[in-house]
């Protein structure tokens, strides 16, 4: 496989992380209070990184299943349909949690971790045991699968601790809308 093709295939999941980080950084410029910045970052992470990334996976597995299977290093399988709808469930949870509490975001982060970290174990197993070095089996997807839930969990825990220390900050998270 050509190097540029390999890089494009392996780095595609990074786009959702990059868009979320750039969007949150731009939107939170000038926001003075920590609670407000934290809220913005959580919303961008939930909506763009997990939500849009999961919708992308849903659509990809449903519409270009052969390509996705090849990119991962497998042959097409009926399980791809199930993977598509597991990702759709993550997207629905992520979009819903964007306007929810730190507790709801933590729950969605833990649900994402259960699925995506399990997928990570599968990818790593295939890499080492079966020599599957396809671009969709390592690299970007591993960073995405490990990083998205981890950041979501960390941000929710930080917000929860902050709200316990400063109960007035809960008003900020309860009234903010969408990407703020």
TrEMBL record:
Superkingdom assignment: Bacteria
Membrane spanning stretches: 6-26, 46-65, 77-95, 107-129, 141-158
Coiled-coil stretches noted in the UniProt entry, renumbered to this chain: none
Keywords: Membrane, Transmembrane, Transmembrane helix
InterPro entries given in the database record: DUF6790 (IPR046740)
Pfam families found in the cross-reference section: DUF6790
Protein name as it appears in the record: DUF4345 domain-containing protein
Organism per entry: Kribbella kalugense
């Amino acid at each position: 496989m050509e190097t540029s093709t390999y890089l494009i295939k392996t780095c595609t999941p990074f786009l959702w992380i990059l868009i979320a980080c750039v969007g949150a950084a731009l939107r939170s410029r000038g926001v003075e209070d920590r609670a407000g910045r934290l809220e913005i970052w959580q919303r961008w992470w939930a909506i763009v990184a997990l939500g849009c990334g999961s919708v992308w996976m849903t659509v990809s597995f449903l519409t270009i299943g052969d390509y996705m299977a090849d990119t991962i290093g497998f042959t097409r399988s009926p399980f791809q349909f199930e993977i598509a709808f597991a990702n759709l469930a993550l997207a629905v949870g992520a979009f819903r949690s964007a306007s929810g509490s730190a507790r709801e975001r933590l729950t969605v982060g833990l649900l994402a971790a259960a699925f995506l970290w399990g997928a990570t174990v599968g990818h790593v197993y295939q890499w080492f045991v079966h020599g599957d070095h396809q671009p969709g089996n390592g690299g970007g997807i591993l960073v995405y699968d490990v990083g998205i839930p981890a950041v979501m969990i960390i941000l929710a825990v930080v917000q929860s601790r902050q709200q316990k220390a400063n109960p007035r900050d809960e008003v900020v998270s309860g009234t903010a809308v969408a990407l703020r």
